[in-house]
Design a protein that fits this description.
Layout: E1 11-14, E2 20-24, H1 26-35, E3 38-42, E4 48-52, E5 65-70, E6 74-80, E7 85-92, H2 114-132, H3 159-176, E8 183-187, H4 202-214, E9 220-223, H5 228-235, H6 253-261, E10 265-271, E11 276-282, E12 291-295, E13 332-337, E14 340-351, E15 356-361, E16 367-371, E17 377-380, E18 386-387
Parallel strand pairs: 1-4, 5-8, 7-12, 8-9
Antiparallel strand pairs: 1-2, 3-4, 5-6, 6-7, 10-11, 12-18, 13-14, 13-17, 14-15, 15-16
Helix pairs in contact: 3-4, 5-6
Length: 388
């Protein structure tokens, strides 16, 4: 078994019609570009790849395995071959954002997460419903809307869990356009047991839904979560268990590499005339590769008005993704400040008689600053992803 880390990574390759081929080395990709045999491109996940301008020499492929290490708020996804690690992703899931007052007694939901948005929507709906009901009348003649249909017949996923799984599926779908994925290795969440209940956990139900959708890309194989550390230690990878929110390869991506590598290496038993035991069989090489952090822009959809009145009893507008300056929320833009080039994503705007500007945010959705629209240049339209 080989676990060297000094070899080069691989660059994805697609043919003229966009069909994925086997990845190549960076040196060969540069040579193709210089000779005009390939065109350099990037996909929506920020992955660099080349598209051939001539017909390829062949379409034979070797196994490329995707490993998915799922967490509550973060997920690591790795794409591994026998000789190289192709891409690593750290996805910040939109269902459960870390609250800013983490650890405080009066902790509330982050309103920019799916969970927080659903909770606030239900709160406002209850308020409006209570305002139109005349409680002085008997119950039968109050202004209650009658049930029009049975809305408890479908087996729905919670919106937060569904949004998390959809983000993982989007990464797999985008990479399947560049790589001929042969198998997807998914770590078991451990919820479908006799102790925890068979299939009653929303996380377990979401996992089964994810696997049914991911199986349309490639066959899905479940890997026992207890064996992940065994493969990780064999490959010499490090695990950070203290702070899993840290955007580093040691938190989730290394576990995803270990899950993908379980396709190429196995811990098997052996017997000889003199001894017996277990040993590692197979070969897998982990290489240095770009580490990509993916988040979703924290956008507020259009609402009627703000919840609180401003001066003069006016309810101002709130939300919306279209600005009056030609930009949209989530657009990737470039601007300047004191000679420094700043790149970020549009997240808000102001349009008054005294002030006209747009707010630019980084990939963690922390505001970098407010800039005049004439000094902001559009680089890419919103793909509903922030790539770092």
């Amino acid at each position: 078994m080989n676990t060297k880390t000094n070899q080069s990574t691989r660059v994805p390759v697609v043919d003229q019609k966009g069909r994925p081929l086997m990845p190549t080395t960076p040196a060969r990709a540069r040579k193709w570009i210089l000779l005009g045999k390939a065109t350099p491109k990037r996909n929506k996940l920020g992955v660099f790849y080349v598209q051939l301008t001539h017909s390829p020499s062949g379409y034979d492929t070797q196994p490329i395995v995707a490993g998915v290490d799922r967490g509550k708020c973060f997920t690591g996804i790795a794409f591994q071959t026998k000789l190289a690690t192709i891409a690593l992703f750290h996805a910040c899931l939109p269902g459960f954002y870390k609250s800013k007052n983490q650890g405080m007694k009066n902790q509330t939901l982050d309103r920019q997460s799916v969970t927080g948005k659903m909770a606030k929507r239900a709160e406002l709906r209850r308020t409006r419903r209570g305002q139109r009901i005349d409680r002085s009348k008997p119950f039968q003649i109050r202004n209650h809307r009658q049930k029009r249909f049975d809305n408890r017949r479908k087996k729905k996923l919670p919106p937060s869990v569904r949004s998390n799984r959809q983000m993982e599926l989007r990464i797999l779908n985008e990479m399947a356009k560049l790589l001929p994925i042969s198998e997807i290795r998914d770590e078991a969440c451990g919820g479908n047991t006799k102790k925890n209940g068979f299939g009653i956990s929303p996380v377990t139900v979401g996992q089964e839904w994810f696997r049914s959708q991911a199986s349309k890309i490639a066959p899905v194989v479940e890997v026992d979560s207890l064996s992940t550390s065994k493969y990780r230690d064999c490959l010499g990878l490090v695990k950070d268990k203290k702070d899993k929110s840290r955007q580093a390869q040691e938190t989730h991506a290394n576990d995803a590499i270990a899950l993908a590598a379980s396709y190429f290496i196995q811990y098997q038993s052996f017997h000889t005339n003199n001894t017996h035991g277990h040993e590692w069989v197979g070969e897998c090489v982990c290489t240095v590769t770009p580490f990509i952090v993916l988040t979703r822009p924290k956008l507020f959809r259009r609402k009627l008005h703000q919840e609180n009145y401003s001066k003069g009893g006016i309810l101002k507008r709130q939300g919306g993704t279209i600005t009056p300056f030609g930009f949209r929320s989530g657009d990737y833009v470039q601007t300047w400040r004191k000679g420094e080039v700043i790149r970020g994503w549009i997240g808000g705007w102001t349009d008054t008689q005294k002030q006209k500007n747009v707010s630019v945010y980084d990939h963690n959705w922390s505001r970098i600053g407010q800039f005049e629209p004439k000094n902001v240049r559009l680089l890419q339209r919103s793909s509903r992803l922030c790539v770092s």
